[in-house]
């Protein structure tokens, strides 16, 4: 028997096959006051079973003033009107034009007092809503998060976690996302929940994910219902449908499958509107699994997607021995069986073909890999035996490893099971009944010095000494973790940042190993090098077999400073002299390093200040490098105390003009000066230098004023202007002074 609800609400209560009995037609009428033209009465329907069967009918355009409405219609009411309007209060908001209440319906028919879900979605002045009723009483209103998202245009109440209570899914297909109309679905774990989790498809422009939401039933027979959500405008209107799986924890927020015509076999790229029509929860071919119908309304096409049969397969892998001696015969057994999830006699599952591959350890004699295809009937356990001989060994006592991989060869079957099983058999070491050797290993790392000189020492040579006073240790490996500034000069395995070196195949007494590490860094900020050693053998070591080498990093270098002045002197002829408006003077300092360690060329310049009123006789302009680029320096009128303690020396020894006729300006003579501190580059090689060019300018008119207006300078016809460079290598300080030897006044 089929119960069919159609149109503006006529009901056939008796139908045989496809022959409708028109005499059994019952028309259920509305109250005269509720009859409205173009109300969309019947736009959505929800059939409810029970002692008094009824249909919930949506009428989303019931009233221009008050918006949509929802009616409860008693199917077998023969006296008077059969439909009654729900009087739903929306709190203080009241009703408003165009709220489209009733545009989506769903409800739970299993409870004695079923909740009904009424969606209202449309172009409103407020956010869209879902109205939840219990026993015809308003229970809760859920609101959308985004204006115009069409929250509530699609709703589904379905138990996806098998807790006997429906969960709620609310579509909001016009949610903007990162572009526009990407869409989303709000998932409430129980219809009474107020908090939700958002479900998404592919974040594609205009997809409108959440346009339709349907229940698929339990498509994989794992005791949890699954759902399908459509995005009929995805991929420029082609459309897609997403499958979400239920579980004990609710719906899995990551979709398990995406169905798109663009991935179908054949030419379906021109389809449009795929997913606008959805129907599921029905097994159309009788194989025990629900199938899915999807309509592509803009192309006039409908697709039936049949669910593949699901099998659970079980594989076992074992051997007849628990350990291997120096030479052993081993019998390995593997078994495969499967069970179909669906219990159906209408379309029973045929035999299934499996491909199995057995891979054996390289220490077997003869063939190491076996592969075969096996045809298995349902619940029939198929087993195979493989006999192998293990080669004798005196070096490699790692466990004997073997594995079994299993694969179903038929694409029409979906299989779940363990595809790969790995097993191992330990070697018999003569270490007690448990075959676990308890070693007592102590190691010591020795180096002649606890420091290195960066740039001078090219490698680090250490001796690793190990002593075992317990049971023998087999396949002993030395694990080394070192600083990134060093590299082990030995063929070892590298795993992440750890070197693994074979130390001994068998360690039952003492053994030493020499290791050499190349120093590959010249980082001037390097303070120490740390190398950690750990010796690991098969079995259990009763003592921690580890040691750490800490090396201090020292620096030894020889820094020098050279300088010159350009020009180194010039003559000034006084008033009326034909000279330029300004005279440029450049003091050039060159810093080098003879090594062996790298050196940073941070340098301080001490520059005398000669004031004439508010102007400087020699105006400092800038500091540039050898390429002419300006060097960033910090100027301070207070010289550092570390520089002021430099021993004073007599600069007159470098002045070749008569001292009684020379004005000397030198910062080491406690004159008014300022300091210029510049951070330089690092010199790694002796061939590298750093250059600093200090540029000054002299105004001739100020020179004339200097010599003629200051009483103390009347008998001094020469001016010695000296700048000083100070640089430290951490232990010593180098000082260089550059002067303009004389300015001769005629």
Describe the structure.
This protein has about 750 residues and is an all-beta fold. It folds into 5 domains: about 1-145, no CATH class; about 145-305, 7 Propeller (Methylamine Dehydrogenase, Chain H), CATH 2.130.10.130; about 310-425, Integrin domains. Chain A, domain 2 (Immunoglobulin-like); about 440-555, Immunoglobulin-like (Sandwich), CATH 2.60.40.1510; about 560-745, ntegrin, alpha v. Chain A, domain 4 (Immunoglobulin-like), CATH 2.60.40.1530. It is built from 3 helices and 60 strands. The relative contact order is 0.05. The model is unreliable at about 1-30, about 90-100, about 110-115 and about 740-745 (pLDDT under 50). It is a single-pass type I membrane protein. Keywords: Cell adhesion, Glycoprotein, Integrin, Membrane, Receptor, Repeat, Signal, Transmembrane, Transmembrane helix. Pfam families: FG-GAP, Integrin_A_Ig_2. One of its GO terms (molecular function) is integrin binding.
Please report the number of helical segments: 3
What's the CATH first level of the largest domain? Mainly Beta
Shape: flat
Question: What's the count of strands?
Answer: 60
The overall pLDDT average reads: 78
How are the strands ordered across the major sheet? 35-44-42-37-40-39
| Unreliable residue stretches | 1-28, 91-98, 109-114, 741-746
Question: By CATH's scheme, which homologous superfamily of the largest domain applies?
Answer: ntegrin, alpha v. Chain A, domain 4
The whole-angstrom Rg is: 46 Å
What fold name goes in the CATH topology slot of the largest domain? Answer: Immunoglobulin-like
By secondary-structure content and strand pairing, the structural class works out as mainly beta
| Overall CATH architecture of the largest domain | Sandwich
What is the percentage of strand-forming residues?
A: over 45%
The percent of residues in helical segments reads under 10%
Q: How is the biggest beta sheet arranged?
A: 6 strands, mixed
């Amino acid at each position: 028997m089929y119960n069919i609800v159609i149109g503006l609400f006529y009901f056939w209560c008796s139908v045989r096959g496809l022959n409708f009995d028109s005499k059994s037609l019952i028309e259920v009428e509305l109250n005269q006051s509720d009859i409205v033209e173009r109300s969309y009465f019947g736009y959505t329907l929800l059939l409810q079973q029970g002692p008094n069967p009824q249909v919930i009918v949506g009428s989303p355009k019931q009233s221009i003033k008050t918006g949509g409405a929802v009616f409860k219609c008693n199917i077998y009411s023969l006296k008077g009107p059969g439909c009654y309007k729900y009087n739903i209060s929306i709190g203080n908001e009241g009703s408003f034009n165009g709220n489209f209440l009733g545009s989506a319906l769903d409800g739970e028919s299993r409870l004695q007092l079923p909740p009904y879900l009424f969606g209202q979605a449309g172009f409103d002045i407020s956010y869209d809503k879902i109205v939840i009723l219990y026993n015809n009483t308003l229970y809760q209103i859920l609101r959308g998060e985004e204006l115009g998202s069409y929250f509530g245009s699609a709703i589904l109440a379905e138990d996806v976690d098998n807790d006997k209570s429906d969960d709620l899914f609310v579509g909001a297909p016009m949610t903007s996302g990162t572009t526009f109309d990407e869409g989303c679905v709000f998932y409430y774990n129980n219809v009474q929940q107020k908090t939700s989790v958002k479900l998404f498809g592919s974040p594609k422009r205009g997809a409108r994910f959440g346009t339709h939401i349907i229940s698929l039933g339990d498509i994989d027979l794992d005791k949890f219902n699954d759902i399908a959500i459509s995005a009929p405008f995805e991929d420029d209107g082609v459309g897609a449908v997403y499958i979400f799986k239920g579980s004990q924890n609710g719906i899995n927020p990551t979709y398990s499958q995406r169905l798109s015509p663009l991935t179908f076999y054949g030419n379906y790229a021109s389809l449009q509107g795929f997913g606008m029509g959805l129907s599921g929860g029905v097994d159309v071919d009788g194989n025990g699994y629900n199938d899915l119908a999807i309509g592509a309304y803009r192309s006039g096409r409908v697709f039936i997607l049949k669910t593949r049969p699901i099998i659970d397969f079980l594989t076992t892998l074992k051997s007849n021995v628990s350990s291997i001696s120096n030479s052993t015969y081993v019998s390995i057994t593997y078994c495969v069986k499967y069970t179909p999830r669906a219990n159906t006699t209408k379309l029973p599952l045929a035999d299934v073909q499996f491909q199995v591959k057995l891979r054996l350890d390289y220490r077997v004699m003869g063939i190491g890999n076996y592969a075969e295809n096996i045809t298995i009937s349902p619940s029939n356990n198929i087993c195979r035996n493989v006999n192998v001989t293990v080669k004798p060994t005196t070096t490699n006592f790692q466990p004997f490893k073997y594995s079994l991989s299993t694969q179903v060869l038929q694409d029409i079957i979906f299989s779940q099971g363990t595809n790969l099983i790995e097993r191992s058999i330990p070697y018999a070491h003569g270490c007690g009944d448990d075959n676990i050797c308890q070693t007592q290993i102590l190691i010591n790392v020795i180096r002649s010095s606890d420091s290195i000189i960066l740039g001078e020492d090219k490698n680090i040579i250490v001796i690793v000494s190990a002593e075992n006073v317990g049971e023998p240790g087999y396949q002993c490996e030395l694990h080394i973790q070192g600083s990134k500034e060093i590299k082990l000069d030995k063929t070892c395995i590298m795993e992440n940042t750890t070197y693994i070196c074979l130390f001994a195949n068998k360690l039952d007494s003492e053994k030493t190993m020499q290791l050499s590490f190349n120093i590959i860094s010249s980082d001037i900020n390097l303070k120490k090098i740390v190398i950690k050693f750990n010796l690991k053998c098969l079995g259990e070591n009763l003592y921690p077999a580890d040691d750490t080498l800490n090396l201090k990093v020292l620096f030894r270098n020889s820094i020098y400073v050279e300088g010159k002045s350009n020009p180194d002197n010039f003559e000034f002829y006084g008033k009326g002299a034909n000279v330029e408006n300004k005279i440029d003077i450049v003091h050039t300092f060159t810093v080098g390093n003879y090594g062996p360690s790298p050196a940073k060329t941070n340098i301080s310049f001490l520059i005398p200040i000669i004031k004439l009123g508010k102007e400087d006789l020699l105006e400092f302009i800038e500091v540039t490098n050898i390429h002419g680029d300006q060097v960033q320096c910090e100027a301070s009128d207070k010289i550092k105390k570390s520089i002021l303690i430099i021993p004073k020396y007599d600069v007159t020894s470098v002045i070749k003009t008569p001292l009684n006729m020379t004005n000397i300006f030198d910062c080491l003579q406690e004159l008014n000066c300022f300091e210029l501190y510049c951070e330089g580059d690092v010199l790694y090689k002796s061939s590298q230098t750093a250059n600093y060019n200090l540029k000054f300018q002299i105004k001739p008119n100020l020179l004339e004023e200097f010599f003629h207006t200051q009483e103390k300078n009347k008998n001094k016809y020469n001016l010695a202007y000296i700048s000083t460079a100070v640089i430290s290598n951490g232990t010593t300080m180098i000082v260089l002074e550059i002067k303009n030897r004389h300015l001769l006044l005629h």
